[in-house]
Amino acid sequence: MRVQILYTYAYLYKALMLSLMLEDILSLRSMRDTCTSDDIFRKCNSVLTDASLSYKLIGVATDGSHITIGNKKDFQVRL
After folding, report:
1. 13 lies in which domain range?
2. Which of 14, 18, 12, 7 is nearest to 41 (CA)?
3. What CA–CA distances, in Å, run from 19 to 11, 13, 15, 26, 42?
4. What is d(CA 76, CA 59) in angstroms, rounded to the nearest whole number?
5. What's phi and psi for 23, nearest 5 deg?
């Protein structure tokens, strides 16, 4: 099974007297062998590091799988 994760980011764009909240695609990464919460966290950390971004997160959107929510070792807890 091949899993792909799409990373997006939102930012505030200010120009003249106009402020817009924009969203862009940051990266699309494949999970090759396993897809545990540790694997997802390491991949996310790699994407943020490569883009020189910090963990100033407002929210996380997932598919609701047990790997990403509802456990002491899940992805959202680690963030």
Report:
1. 3-78
2. 7
3. 10, 6, 6, 21, 33
4. 10
5. -135, 135
- In this prediction the pTM is 0.65
Instruction: Report the number of distinct structural domains present in the chain.
Output: 1
SS3 for 12-35 is EEEECCEEEEEEEEEEEEEECCCC
For residue 69, the SS3 value is: coil
Asked if pLDDT for residue 11 goes beyond 70, the answer is yes
Q: Which residues of 21-50 are buried (b: 16+ CB within 10 A; e: fewer)?
A: eeeeeebebeeeeebebebbbebbeebbee
Residue 49 phi, psi dihedral angles, 5° rounding: -65, -45
Q: Distance from first CA to last CA of the chain, Å, rounded?
A: 25
